[in-house]
Amino acid sequence: MAVIEINRQTETKPSRSRGVDAKLEVLVIPVSDVDRAKAFYARLGWRLDADFASGDDWRVIQFTPPGSACSVIFGKNVTAAVPGSARGLYLVVSDLEAARQDLLDRGVEVSAPFHGDGDVHAGPDEPYLFGSVRVSGADPKRGSYASFAAFSDPDGNGWLFQEITTRLPGRVASDSTTFASTTDLAAALRRAALAHGEHETRSGGHDENWADWYADYIVREQAGQPLPI
Question: Where are the domains of the chain?
């Protein structure tokens, strides 16, 4: 069994302790040509937040992916890391094919969907597969967390789309449902509509309380709880 399957079946219990909030908001990526990197990330459709310079010796640029609470920065004399050395930078999406098509429409090269399988380590260039080998195609079971696509910036910094539709238990509070974008919310509504149609077929009648059913489904799905039937 692949490691990712084991992780998906492991019960995750939320901590009862409350510490100081520490929100990850910025990642630094190393690039060799600042203007070339700026043009690339702008082409992705990411929001340009800042482009500051101090003479010829220092410059920092910040971009934020759509719907993300975390931004990336790069520039001149921002980091001593080797340009292109960043790997396994995750971008979580609710619809892998839609995310891929968006990049293709923008003229950005992106890999075909793939998933991890087996017990052979993927090697230093694919640490994100956690001990599995890359297998072509999306996960056959279309499991949450299991399907990927990859692309790189001009320096070779490696980005990943990871499709997540249902969070593991404890990853989202049961009384809190949030969406990073209207696209994610629409995708959740479509999944709820499909599941509700199956529910009506099983029950043999029209459910007038469909709005309550949708709401219950979406909250449970995001919290990783058992779904209504």
Answer: 23-83, 87-165, 182-223
Measure the CA angle with vertex 7, ends 167 and 113; round to 5°: 70
pTM of this structure: 0.67
How far apart (Å, rounded) are the C-alpha atoms in residues 3 and 121? 10
**Which pLDDT tens digit goes with each residue over 3-53?**
334 344 444 454 555 578 788 999 999 999 999 999 999 999 999 999 999
- Number of alpha helices (DSSP H) and beta strands (DSSP E) in the chain: 5, 9
* Superfamily holding 23-83: 2,3-Dihydroxybiphenyl 1,2-Dioxygenase, domain 1 (3.10.180.10)
Tally Cβ neighbours within 10 Å of residue 96. Answer: 20
Per-residue pLDDT tens digits for 97-145: 999 999 999 999 999 999 887 544 444 455 556 556 778 899 888 888 8
